[in-house]
Amino acid sequence: MLVLILGLLLFLGVHSVNLLAPGWRVAQIERLGILPWKGIYALLSLVGLLLIIWGYALSRYNPVVLYFPPMWTRHLASLLTLPAFILLVATYLPMSKLKVRVGHPMLLGVKFWALAHLLANGMLADLLLFGGFLVWATALYVVSRRRDRLAGRSPAAGSWAMDALAITLGVVFWAAFAMWLHVMLIGVAPFIRG
């Protein structure tokens, strides 16, 4: 579990610098330059992500069971990840009404993803991984929305066409991941019969 916890601390810590120490972040960018800062940020994020993956894989050798979720929670989790994919796509599409309305669609998508996986998994490693991401995304979402309001950011009008594209691409990516990629990468088939 130590590797997983270190990975979470590093990955989520790096992604929380703007939340916890925005002044320090600005000072480092001014001191180092934007490209070196982004390089360090990316490298630390990658190391954290690799530690998370390795630590989560190691936890399967000595699983600590907290609870046994009922079978129906797996189907609910599969359904809850659909908006996560749509929100993830909306993050990268300019001018979608969804992005304008939500403000920070990636963070909201992470919340859907983490909640879905907490419902369907009952191991300590699952609680650490998905619970950690849920707490982080919730805190960052609240703070980011508050900062937007205090800064007087008024979002531009969005486009229904971009929303349609976000939904279409999100459904396609969700289906591809649920049907093929999840079992290939994670070793679990989300749509199991039971």
UniProtKB/TrEMBL annotation:
<dbReference type="GO" id="GO:0016020">
    <property type="term" value="C:membrane"/>
</dbReference>
<keyword id="KW-1133">Transmembrane helix</keyword>
<feature type="transmembrane region" description="Helical">
    <location>
        <begin position="71"/>
        <end position="93"/>
    </location>
</feature>
<dbReference type="InterPro" id="IPR009915">
    <property type="entry name" value="NnrU_dom"/>
</dbReference>
<dbReference type="Pfam" id="PF07298">
    <property type="entry name" value="NnrU"/>
</dbReference>
<keyword id="KW-0472">Membrane</keyword>
<feature type="transmembrane region" description="Helical">
    <location>
        <begin position="40"/>
        <end position="59"/>
    </location>
</feature>
<protein>
    <submittedName>
        <fullName>Uncharacterized membrane protein</fullName>
    </submittedName>
</protein>
<keyword id="KW-0812">Transmembrane</keyword>
<feature type="transmembrane region" description="Helical">
    <location>
        <begin position="164"/>
        <end position="192"/>
    </location>
</feature>
<feature type="transmembrane region" description="Helical">
    <location>
        <begin position="113"/>
        <end position="143"/>
    </location>
</feature>
<feature type="domain" description="NnrU">
    <location>
        <begin position="3"/>
        <end position="190"/>
    </location>
</feature>
